[in-house]
From TrEMBL, chain A:
It comes from Methylomonas rosea. InterPro entries: DnaA_dom, Hda, Hda_lid, P-loop_NTPase. Gene3D superfamilies: 1.10.8.60, P-loop containing nucleotide triphosphate hydrolases (3.40.50.300). Residues 162-226 form the Hda lid domain. Pfam families: Bac_DnaA, Hda_lid. Residues 89-155 form the Chromosomal replication initiator protein DnaA ATPAse domain. This is DnaA regulatory inactivator Hda.
TrEMBL record, chain B:
Residues 1-81 are annotated as: Domain I, interacts with DnaA modulators. ATP binds at G146, G148, K149, T150. Oligomerizes as a right-handed, spiral filament on DNA at oriC. It comes from Methylomonas rosea. It holds the Pfam family DnaA_N. Residues 346-415 form the Chromosomal replication initiator DnaA C-terminal domain. It is found in: Cytoplasm. Residues 319-438 are annotated as: Domain IV, binds dsDNA. HAMAP family: DnaA_bact. Its main location: cytoplasm. Plays an essential role in the initiation and regulation of chromosomal replication. ATP-DnaA binds to the origin of replication (oriC) to initiate formation of the DNA replication initiation complex once per cell cycle. Binds the DnaA box (a 9 base pair repeat at the origin) and separates the double-stranded (ds)DNA. Forms a right-handed helical filament on oriC DNA; dsDNA binds to the exterior of the filament while single-stranded (ss)DNA is stabiized in the filament's interior. InterPro entries: AAA+_ATPase, Chromosome_initiator_DnaA, Chromosome_initiator_DnaA-like, Chromosome_initiator_DnaA_CS, DnaA_C, DnaA_dom, DnaA_N_dom, DnaA_N_sf. The keyword ATP-binding applies. This is Chromosomal replication initiator protein DnaA. The gene is dnaA.
Length: 230, 438
């Protein structure tokens, strides 16, 4: 079943709302990066829906709380802004770039990112990068940029096992303020386990639907929410 | 921090999608006065985007929390003074002394690991630091990315500063030179720009290849370069290629870059890679066992940045788990990285690359053909497989048509001899190593 995704609010992208699973080390490293950790650069990679964007935004949120100036940008291959967007960012203490694999084949962006990288690093500021592949597999044309991507700490987001997926679902639903009965959880996973990004977005929608209808989540009600989507 | 803006942020976080909030709203810095809430953004692009998409919602929030007493204004800037900025073109000696030199203090000759691949470049750099402006001017260090060119540049600057703390030294990336020049042209301050760059005692300019295709910058750099050399000031340049091979660079610049000493840095050999790891580990307080260093060095054959990345992974994981760094632990910590490396550098891939390079068929490498045009590439491929993969001699022999392991050992010895005696073979080997490592 395909659920078309609408423009979604995904608030509460904090460390507290992230289900760590096998990724407790990544969470710890990123929390340290946002505050006063030793690492200057962290590169995280993993599949879509593994939580990269959530973690990057959580990092920004945490950095802001401790008085730092963070910046987050998710690159979108179909809608890349002008590279002048990077001007002045070298002065910000934490810069997070999401989906950097999409910059391959955009040589003007590669040059801009390279220039930004050198000055930002020289300023001793922190950089957090995320992609769907490790640095070696980035299709960048600038070898100098590619080697720099691997300079810091590179961490892979480990995918969740099936049992952890149920746990993650319950955890996230609980965080949003509603319960998912096990049968409903299994139903959701059977339909969405191959598209985690869609699953997490749907969870947000379920939250608002249950709130609006003042109803507990059941399979029939879930089917109704899904039907309203299509 | 403005209390009103803090309240606005808390409200806006629930009204604006989180990615938009993180990109456009959270980074804004607020300065509050009696009648105004000034929001500072890093650049014009961001301000224009916010005005177009979020101005109304921001204004509503500010009105709500300030009882409509504050007007919202946007400005380019930052509350915190930036760590470094474009060099301000100063004239007085005190000002000059206080100008940042952008040198990284950690990059010294002592922290540089010397091996066969970089000893000439290091020796030339030490000589330059002892004889500023007198020998090897310019010193031109070239080689692939991530091999230590920038380290040597900073080391020259740091060594000179130890002897002459007042020396006017500037390290910069060539793109910074271009940016400074563009700014100077926009602000009608090109004369100050010229004066600044021509007053430097030691100019350390990194990655000169990025001047390619930028004619106006090349012209300005040409004059700066001549002026510095005429006045016996030192110029040190790095590049990914030998001067004459840089496309898009004026011939007069290529020729001048070759006036002093062009010196190459090659990818480090296994022993140097291991030594680099041990030294880098020591710098973060870790006593890395030699076996572990060799294990990592063998699996990460490409460049020093990759080596540093792997070491960081091991150290970070050890600190997180509280486990000691043993060989077993290292294998676990680097599991993701190593399995990838194996995917990238396999014997199959080496055979394919070598066959393509020598213009023979892949099948020839496993055949019984004993013509020199085939045996030489076969020996080179075996030697590369030994250096770049973790396969044993018997495994490599098997992959080359079921040959005995002694054939592989002999091939490795023969290639080592040939590399010393025959410049062409040495060059071929380096080229193949570079192709396979990137």
């Amino acid at each position: 079943m395909q659920v078309p995704l609408q423009f979604e609010f995904q608030n509460d992208q904090t460390f507290a709302s992230f289900f760590p699973g096998n990724n407790a080390e990544i969470v710890a490293q990123l929390q340290a990066l946002a505050t006063n950790g030793q690492e200057q650069q962290i590169f995280i990679w993993g599949d879509a829906g593994s939580g990269k964007s959530h973690l990057l935004q959580a990092c920004c949120q945490q950095a802001k709380l401790v008085g730092k100036d963070p910046f987050y940008l998710a690159f979108d291959a179909d809608n890349l802004p002008a590279p002048t967007l990077l001007e002045g960012l070298e002065d910000l203490e934490l810069v997070c770039f999401d989906n950097i694999q999409t910059l391959a084949d955009h040589i003007d962006w590669e040059h801009a990112l390279f220039a930004f990288y050198n000055t930002h690093r020289q300023n001793n500021h922190k950089l957090l990068l995320a992609a769907d592949c490790p640095p070696k597999f980035l299709g960048f044309d600038l070898p100098d940029l590619k080697t720099r991507m691997a300079w810091g700490l590179t961490l892979k987001i480990q995918p969740l096992r099936d049992d952890q997926l149920i746990e993650a679902l319950t955890y996230k639903a609980h965080f949003l303020g509603f319960d998912i009965p096990p049968a409903v959880g299994r139903f959701l996973l059977n339909h969405y386990v191959h598209d985690l990004a869609a699953l997490w977005l749907l969870l947000d929608k379920i939250d608002r639907a249950t709130l609006a209808a003042q109803r507990k989540l059941t399979i029939p009600f879930l089917k109704q929410i899904l039907a309203d989507e299509t | 921090m403005s209390v009103i803006w803090n309240n606005c942020l808390a409200k806006l976080e629930h009204e604006i999608p989180s990615t938009d909030f993180s990109t456009w709203i959270r980074p804004l810095q607020a300065v509050e006065t009696d009648s105004q809430l000034k929001l500072l953004a890093p650049n014009r692009f961001i301000i224009d985007h916010i005005k177009q998409h979020f101005f109304a919602i921001i204004e509503d929030a500010v009105n709500e929390f300030s009882n409509a007493t504050l007007a919202v204004q946007f400005e380019i800037g930052s509350k915190k003074s930036p760590a470094i900025k474009a060099p301000i073109l100063s004239k007085s000696p005190t000002q000059k002394k206080n100008q940042p030199n952008f040198l990284n203090k950690a990059f010294t000759f002592e922290s540089f690991v010397e091996g066969k691949s970089n000893q000439l470049a290091r020796a030339a750099s030490v000589t330059v630091s002892d004889n500023i402006g007198k020998v090897y001017n310019p010193l031109f260090i070239y080689g692939s990315s991530g091999l230590g060119k920038t380290h040597l540049m900073h080391a020259i600057g740091n060594a000179v500063l130890l002897k002459k703390p007042d020396a006017n030294i500037v390290y910069l990336h060539s793109e910074k030179f271009v940016q400074d020049m563009v700014k100077a042209l926009q602000q009608n301050s090109i004369n100050q720009f010229k004066e600044y760059y021509r007053s430097i005692d030691i100019l350390l300019m990194d990655d000169i290849q990025f001047l390619a295709g930028k004619e106006r910058s090349q012209e300005e750099f040409f004059h700066t370069f001549n002026n510095l050399l005429d006045n016996k000031h030192q110029v040190v340049l790095t590049c990914d290629k030998y001067p004459k091979e840089i496309d898009g660079l004026e011939d007069r610049l290529k020729s001048r870059f070759g006036w002093g000493l062009p010196v190459a840095i090659e990818p480090p050999d296994l022993e140097t890679r291991a030594a680099i790891l041990i030294k880098k580990a020591m710098q973060v307080g870790v006593d890395l066992d030699q076996d572990i260093a060799f294990f990592i060095a063998k699996r990460i054959p490409s460049n020093v940045r990759d080596l540093e990345g792997a070491l960081r992974r091991v150290v970070a994981n050890s600190q997180f788990t509280g486990r000691d760094i043993t060989l077993e632990f290292t294998k676990e910590a680097l599991h993701d990285l190593i399995s990838l490396q194996d995917k990238l550098i396999s014997i199959d891939n080496i055979q394919k690359t070598v066959a393509e390079y020598f213009k023979i068929r892949v099948a020839d490498l496993s055949s019984k053909n004993r013509k020199q045009s085939i045996t030489r590439p076969r020996q080179v491929a075996m030697c590369l497989a030994r250096e770049l993969t973790s396969h044993s001699y018997p495994e490599i022999g098997d992959a080359f048509g079921g040959r005995d392991h002694t054939t592989v050992i002999n091939a490795c010895k023969r290639v080592a001899e040939l590399k010393d005696d025959d410049v062409k073979i040495a060059e071929d080997y380096k080229n193949l190593l570079r192709t396979l490592s990137h």
